Amino acid sequence: MAKFLCLVQFCLILTLCSVSSVFSCRWNYRKFRHYHGNCLTLLREMDTGTSGDSENGNIFDADWFAHHTNSQPVKQIWLFIQTLEEISSLLTEADPVPWNKEQLNNFLNMLDYETEELHSCVPVRGRKNKRLSLYFKQLRGLIHNNTGDQTNVWEQIRKDLLDLLSLLESFPADYFANKTY
Fold first, then answer.
1. CA-CA distance, 157 to 80, in Å (whole number)?
2. DSSP 129
């Protein structure tokens, strides 16, 4: 009987912890749309005026990414978090990025804020998506393997990131819409 009571107490604690994680999410859809919209605006404004066309074309597979809109909401949030972290890492590691430094810093700060707030919405760390990691590895390769003018490469990357962040804009909508605050 004592083992049964311990098991019931353990299950009750797990249930309470999972319910409390729902209420601990500080982020909501309105706040997300505001900050994410600002990120998109900043990225659009950092246009260098070059075409950004290269022999590589757009290396991002939007169909694969859009497929993840059907995954579980928590997995969607983790994919979103990983994407924001990868973008931040890419732009922080690379030097020099030929964009307006003040706008770039504001953009990175907003990405970090979005990431921090999204972390409060999921109870445990998710697994990294290998395909997304490979995509960012390819972007890093574009930067490091280009011996010519980096401006065109950075413009291509800016356009790719803009496409990617635009896709993310609708990702967690269902998750936030179903949250109880």
1. 18
2. P
Q: Determine the Cα angle at 54 with ends 49 and 63, to 5°.
A: 100
Alpha carbon separation from 58 to 46, 65, 112, 142, 164 (Å, rounded): 18, 14, 25, 11, 11
Q: Tens digits of per-residue pLDDT, 69-93?
A: 667 778 888 888 999 999 999 999 8
Q: pLDDT tens, 51-63?
A: 655 555 556 666 6
**Alpha helix stretches (DSSP H) within 68-129:** 73-93, 101-119
Q: CB–CB of 121/81 below 8 Å?
A: no
pLDDT over threshold 80, residue 66: no
Among candidates 176, 167, 136, 177, which has minimal Cα distance to 68? 167
Task: Determine the residue type at 161.
Answer: L
Number of H helices, E strands in the chain: 8, 0
Within 8 A by CB and 6+ apart from 3, the residues are: none
Q: Are 77 and 175 in contact (CB under 8 A)?
A: yes
